[in-house]
Write a structure and sequence with these properties.
Helix content: 55-70%
Structural class: mainly alpha
Number of domains: 1
Low-confidence stretches: 1-10
Largest sheet: 2 strands, antiparallel
Order of helices and strands: HEEHHEEHHHHEEHHHHH
Strand order of the largest sheet: 1-2
Mean pLDDT: 87
Shape: globular
Number of strands: 6
Length: about 350
């Protein structure tokens, strides 16, 4: 597993002949599988429209789970359970013999906050996709569930590759940093998200492989049409959701590596942000137009983490707590400015 190879573990103990760190990844994977099984098999077994109250409740649950996991990380790194916090790779190519619990928790929370904030931009695009394919509200959760399952697999692979690159070629951090800054500039220059599913290569591939029904068949991705197996519009929506997540991952994965090169912290913070994406979508999808300053805030976050990565080998290297405070301040300013602007707009309309 590339993630394990990315972090040297010369002093980490062995369990049953395997590096202890292997069991840390296995335990986290088991935890994620439990979350997914409960989500689809228990709480969302029947297709239904997710209302605002339910979405807010699930958002609180996922954020609470992330905070609780930060507490577990504190204990795990402080006591070095399963080899965590031993011989941890750094962005400058060095290896820190021991990373304590407080530092690990701060790194996780900073990475989680960045990934959570960048996923807000993804929410807007997903809303456009669902609108384009006219996906009924009661079936949207199913698309997001399978879309996020695919996103977990894709991002796991991308994190493994990124960790290996940084471990083998420390200069790649400058490439990542420059890429993030260029992405921020690109976002600032683009006025809107341009998506056209009919021109998407994956959608065209699905249409070549299967006939596509114009009608939905419940929450099924495939149906029968004229005696033949056919794809439903729900499958096309899923393909587009997976594609957009891949595009956004190209930005978000380098962003998380700007915070830490520890692959376990990178993976866990990314996964927790993705797990809460569905609830975040149902909370924000109908209100994205009201957050007019959200995009400038995201641009600021990307630009900041890009600069942070470029400074990692200089005397001006930014510490974890400062990064957490700056990112939180940028996002808070964007949200507050949006709320104030929306309220003033409502007052003018009423007048």
């Amino acid at each position: 597993m590339l993630l394990l190879d990315a972090a040297p573990a010369a002093t980490a103990p062995l369990l049953l002949g395997l590096p202890a760190l292997t069991w840390a990844y296995a335990a986290f994977l088991a935890l994620v599988l439990v979350f997914l099984a409960l989500d689809l098999g228990v709480f969302h077994r029947e297709a239904h429209e997710v209302g605002m109250r339910e979405a807010v409740a699930w958002t609180v649950v996922w954020i609470g789970a992330a905070l609780a996991f930060a507490g577990v990380l504190y204990l795990a790194y402080e006591r070095h359970w399963l080899g965590l916090g031993i011989d941890v790779p750094q962005l400058d190519g060095s290896v820190t013999p021991v990373v304590g619990g407080l530092e690990a928790a701060k790194l996780f929370l900073t990475g989680y906050l960045i990934e959570k904030s960048l996923s807000m931009d993804n929410v807007f695009v997903i809303a456009l996709i669902f609108g384009y394919f006219a996906v009924p509200a009661r079936y949207q959760h199913r698309v997001l569930f399978w879309g996020i399952l695919g996103a977990l697999a894709m991002r796991g692979g991308m994190i493994a590759i990124g960790a290996q690159l940084i471990h083998s070629f420390s200069w790649v951090i400058y490439v990542f940093g420059a890429f993030l800054i260029l992405t921020a500039v690109k976002m600032a220059l683009l006025s809107s998200h341009g998506i056209d599913p009919e021109k998407n290569a994956l959608v065209r591939l699905v249409r070549r492989l299967y006939p596509v029904s114009t009608q939905y068949d419940g929450q099924r991705f495939f149906t029968r049409m004229d005696g033949r197996r056919a794809a439903t519009p729900l499958l096309l929506a899923l393909v587009m959701v997976e594609f957009t997540d891949l595009v956004f991952a190209v930005d978000s994965i380098p962003a998380i590596f700007a915070i830490t090169a520890d692959p376990f912290l990178v993976l866990t913070s990314n996964v927790f942000a993705i797990l809460g994406l569905r609830a975040l979508y149902f909370c924000l999808a109908g209100m994205m137009t009201e957050f007019k300053y959200l995009k400038p805030a995201l641009i600021g976050v990307l630009g900041f983490v890009g600069v942070k990565m470029l400074l990692v080998k200089t005397p001006y290297k930014l510490d974890t707590m400062l990064s957490l405070v700056v990112v939180l301040a940028i996002l808070t300013a964007g949200v507050v400015a949006s709320v104030v602007a929306a309220r003033r707009g409502g007052e003018r309309a009423a007048a």
